[in-house]
Every structure is written in C-alpha cells, then in structure tokens.
Write a structure and sequence with these properties.
The chain is built from 2 helices and no strands. The protein is mainly alpha-helical and 118 residues long.
C-alpha cells in the first residue's frame, strides 16, 4: 500500500472511499453468509421435525392397524378363537387343582431327621 502521508488530498479521498466501499462490501458479504447459515440451520431443524412427525404418524398408523387386527381377532368367533379361550380356562383349572393338592398334602418338617420319626 502506498504511504498515506505522502498522498495528495484528492487521491487520499479516493483511497478512503475505496477502503470504505471494500469494508461495506465485506460487511454485506458476512451478513449474507450469516443469513445463509441461519437458513440452512432452520432448514435442518424443519427437516428433522418433519421426519419425527412422519415417524410418529407411521408408528400411530401401525398401532392403529395392530389394534384393529386384535379387535378383529376378538370379534372372530371361529374355531381357533374357541381353542384359545379353552386353553386359558384349562390352565386356570390346572392351577386351582395344584393349589388344592398342595394344601391337602402335609408338609414334612425339613429340620427333623428321618431317624427320629420312629
């Protein structure tokens, strides 16, 4: 850069104007870059939210179809539905009989030795 002290006033003014124009241009450029970054950040945020919403909607749809399928199974009075209820009833009955059997059998005292039972 030229020595500023030795420049004539007209040339000094033009150099000053050039420097100010360059400074203004750099500020505008930085401002534009900042705006672009903010837009990109906002776009990523919106994309992420839309993906979450889509996942939520898919999950809800899957849950609805699953619950709809279960409700159809409950209303289906076919052959297999009767077997399922019969299996459940038999398991309950078996548990009840096991409880009754175990209550009627006297428990041996585990602390007594078999030799003392004479």
């Amino acid at each position: 850069m030229k020595d500023i002290k030795n420049l004539p006033p007209e040339q000094l003014e033009t150099e000053f104007k050039k420097a100010m124009a360059e400074k203004k241009r750099k500020e505008e450029e930085e401002k534009c870059i900042g705006e672009i970054k903010n837009r990109q950040k906002m776009a990523r945020k919106v994309k992420k939210e839309s993906e979450k919403a889509a996942k939520r909607a898919a999950k809800e749809k899957k849950r609805e179809s699953k619950s709809k399928g279960q409700s159809e199974e409950r209303t289906n009075d076919g052959f297999y539905n009767g077997l399922d209820t019969m299996d459940i009833a038999m398991a309950k009955m078996e548990e009840e009989t096991n409880k009754i059997l175990f209550q009627s059998i006297p428990q041996e005292n585990p602390f007594k030795s078999p030799c003392t039972l004479r």
